[in-house]
Write a sequence for this structure.
């Protein structure tokens, strides 16, 4: 998979998890995003979050980290949806089905949204 294709894949994943959060929370959510990798040592990123995610997950056309949990974690003060991600740390491999059967590295976070 080429970088540009992976960028598009990340964009569609962000939309998918936003829709999932809307199903769980009820109201339509604003499409304004922030991102943070799980862990207190990571700061919240508010610009170019797609590129930020791609830099961590996409190594090259043949190597992508295969297992990344991702989901909407909260709504922060400025109204942005805080997307939270966690890489399981498995060695990079080619793009393909992950352990959930989904194509690609992302496992959409399916627990109840933490915001009201």
């Amino acid at each position: 998979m080429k970088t540009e294709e992976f960028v598009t894949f990340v964009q569609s994943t962000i939309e998918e998890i936003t829709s999932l959060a809307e199903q769980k929370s009820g109201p339509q959510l604003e499409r304004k995003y922030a991102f943070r990798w799980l862990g207190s040592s990571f700061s919240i990123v508010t610009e170019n979050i797609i590129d930020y995610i791609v830099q961590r997950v996409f190594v090259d056309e043949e190597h992508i980290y295969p297992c990344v949990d991702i989901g909407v974690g909260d709504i922060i003060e400025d109204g942005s949806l805080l997307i939270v991600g966690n890489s399981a740390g498995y060695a990079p491999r080619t793009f393909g089905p992950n352990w959930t059967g989904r194509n690609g590295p992302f496992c959409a976070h399916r627990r109840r949204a933490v915001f009201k």
